[in-house]
Amino acid sequence: MAVSVAVELRQVSKVYGSGPTEVHALREVDLSVRGGELVAVMGPSGSGKSTLLTIAGTLEEPTSGDVLIAGHELARLSRNDRARLRRRSMGYVFQDFNLLAGLTAVENVALPLELDGVRVKVARAAAMEVLAKLDLTERAARYPDELSGGESQRVAIARAVVGERRLLLADEPTGALDSLSGETVMRMLRHACHDGVAGVVVTHDAQMASWADRVVFLRDGRVVDQTVPSPGPESLLAPGGNK
Amino acid sequence: MSIRHALLALLSEGPKYGLQLRQEFESRTGEVWPLNVGQVYTTLQRLERDGLVESEGSGGAGSHNVFTITPTGSGELNEWLRTPPDVVPPPRDELVIKVLVAMRVPGVDLPELLQMHRRHLVQAMQEYTRLKSEITEGEVELSLVVDSELFRIEAIVRWLDTADARLKRLPARTAGQDPTSAPRVGRKIAGVWR
């Protein structure tokens, strides 16, 4: 599979308010995420994590700098084109799942496709396929209030990757879950990304961030550091290997 | 890690040979703690001397001997399992010392220093997580060991995060100020464990 840059932020800054109340949420941020890569963004509260995610997800516009989604410069797209790009290429996962209570798991997952004009039967089949990949076939006909937190979040991930989505954005996706459910969710996110989707997950939890291929650290709106990929875990558990 | 008690635990399942004990010890601890045969036999000899195990075979602690746990050994094992681990911190935590020292060294960019350590630790966590992602369902011992390492390192990352936030709130301080605070820290912490 060709490795392509799914999202790119170039010198992105975001300022809220003006004058004495001015807040610089992001300062000259450069970030690019390839298809097949899961990137975690870590940083303390107020470091700009969520702003970065909403700008990468085209839900908000930067004050300056460029955002490119699959090579398309957002600023050059019409409002409608931008909305279509958002609908077709991006999926969002939130801490509190945001599933529609009146729809079953499979109906929730199929919804973005149906809203985009895909026939119900085709959309449901695509939804079932994603649910199967996330081990949720048995839960497909259940309503959100019949699912555990971990299952709900996995349904939300299925909804975020169904169809031709290339970019998955998650804001503290394990924040409401216990350790093992959180681990399952991160495992699934990583799995979805390694299937070709680019993922950006915002978290303050180092254990959850450690599921990412790369961890980017934000501080006061700036990217201050990132992890470098390691050769592998072989040396880890050897005696004296983790020095 | 108490090899002595690990061997007693393996013998609590039934009589075993020395080599068998070594193999089982390694597989049960996710092969994280390799053990040489010499360590096994020396420990078995001491356990026998202390009346915690008995051996039967060609004499000595050789490979043809079968070892059995005694009632005293079972008692010792049960007591060890229920003894809380020592949670008193080590007398010198290297990273804490480095940060305390850095606060006094002129020209050190503390947030940058904390971030350097944070990155190193998160990278180590990524490696453990990669290892965890490859563990099969049957390897529960290895999962437990990896989880324990991840929680241990995460705690240090959280300490760095808290230190970062706490130092950010401080008014700017010139290096070398307040030299009397360090001994007080030592005395107060020691008081908690008295």
What does this structure look like?
The complex is a heterodimer of chains A (243) and B (194). Chain A is α/β, with parallel strands linked by helices and 243 residues long. Chain A has seven helices and ten strands. Chain A has a domain of 154 residues: 3-Layer(aba) Sandwich (Rossmann fold), CATH 3.40.50.300. Chain A has a six-stranded mixed β-sheet with strand order 6-7-8-3-9-10, with helices on both faces. A four-stranded antiparallel β-sheet of chain A has the order 2-1-4-5, with helices on one face. In chain A, 43% of the residues are buried. The C terminus of chain A is likely disordered. Chain B is built from eight helices and three strands; from the N terminus they run αβααββααααα. By secondary structure, chain B is mostly helical. The two termini of chain B are 25 Å apart. Chain B folds into two domains: 80 residues, Winged helix-like DNA-binding domain superfamily/Winged helix DNA-binding domain (Arc Repressor Mutant, subunit A, Orthogonal Bundle), CATH 1.10.10; 85 residues. Chain A: One of its GO terms (molecular function) is transmembrane transporter activity. Chain A: This is Macrolide ABC transporter ATP-binding protein. Chain A: It comes from Phytohabitans suffuscus.
Give the SSE order of chain A as H and E letters. EEEHEEHEHHHEHEHEE
Based on helices, strands and strand pairing, what is the structural class of chain B?
mainly alpha
Shape of chain A: globular
Element order of chain B: H for helix, E for strand: HEHHEEHHHHH
Q: How many alpha or pi helices of chain A? A: 7
User: In order across it, which strands form the biggest sheet of chain A?
Assistant: 6-7-8-3-9-10
Q: Flag low-confidence runs of chain A.
A: 239-243
Sheet with the most strands, sense and barrel status of chain A: 6 strands, mixed
* Proportion of residues in β-strands of chain A: 25-35%
Principal-axis shape of chain B: elongated
Terminal-residue CA separation of chain A: 37 Å
Give the biggest sheet of chain B.
3 strands, antiparallel
What level of helicity do the residues of chain A show? 25-40%
- Quantity of strands of chain A, as a count: 10
Arithmetic mean of pLDDT of chain B = 85
- How many domain units of chain B? 2
How are the strands of the biggest sheet of chain B laid out side by side? 1-3-2
Q: Which homologous superfamily in CATH is the superfamily of the domain at 5-98 and 167-226 in chain A? A: P-loop containing nucleotide triphosphate hydrolases
